[in-house]
Design brief:
alpha/beta, TIM Barrel, eight-stranded parallel barrel, binds SN-glycerol-3-phosphate
Length: 218
């Protein structure tokens, strides 16, 4: 399973990259706004700065919601760097745009996915990645992980190539559950990745090993 970091914060992206386990980055207009990145030129520059840190897979989201607008913006984003994946919302014109980019060999990430039906049509259109938002489904008292299981099952029965990119992943347990459910990728905050490292028995065990070593060598 690949690990993407879900942020536009360059320090956090660097820290995750330094850990050696990062496969990509996802952003969205809310995450760019959180970093205070505004204006087309600054946004494009920021995407380039992200591409310069990581090895591949930088999702950059279009703002347009009509077909022509998404094509124009997506083509501009794709020109920034070969690492760019054009992120497109799950709407009718978005599906048409995904098909267009798929025919041109430009990678896409279909975002704002909340159902298996949406997952099927995105795969039919040739999306490279599919982003079901599991945390937001949990927020509605449904089970986001169930959706990952269902899509994973459908994609393997149907032989679809689209990768399931579990998004709105908010904690380390979500990551473990996504791995069990068959997600190809998780995108999450740095804290959720670092949380995977933690176990109190590891800390207690290490303290004991070091204390025994000190005693034996004093
Ligand atoms: O990956 C999508 C993500 O940015 C949305 O996360 O926590 O706002 O639902 P959240």
């Amino acid at each position: 399973m690949k690990f993407f970091i879900d942020t536009a914060n360059l320090d956090q992206i660097r820290e995750a990259q330094d850990l050696g386990v990062l496969d990509g980055v996802t952003t969205n207009p809310s995450l760019m706004a959180k970093e205070g990145i505004t204006g087309t030129e600054n946004v494009l520059k920021h995407y380039k700065a992200i591409c310069d840190i990581v090895d591949d897979n930088v999702s950059a989201e279009v703002i347009a919601t009509d077909y022509e607008g998404m094509i124009k913006e997506g083509e501009e984003l794709a020109k920034i760097d070969p690492k760019i994946v054009v992120k497109i919302p799950m709407i009718k014109d978005g599906i048409k745009a995904i098909k267009y980019f798929s025919n041109k060999g430009i990678r896409t990430n279909c975002t704002l996915v909340f159902s298996a039906g949406q997952a099927i049509i995105a795969a039919k259109a040739g999306a490279t990645f599919l982003s079901p938002f599991i945390g937001r489904i949990d927020d509605m008292n449904w089970d986001g992980i169930d959706l990952i299981h269902q899509i994973s099952n459908i994609y393997s029965i149907q032989g679809y190539d689209t990768e399931i990119l579990a998004a709105s992943v908010r904690n380390s347990l979500h990551i473990v559950k996504c791995a069990e459910a068959g997600a190809d990728v998780v995108t999450c905050p740095l804290s959720a990745i670092l949380g995977l490292l933690k176990h109190p028995l590891t800390d207690i065990g290490l303290a004991q090993f070091l204390a025994d070593h000190r005693k034996a060598n004093s």
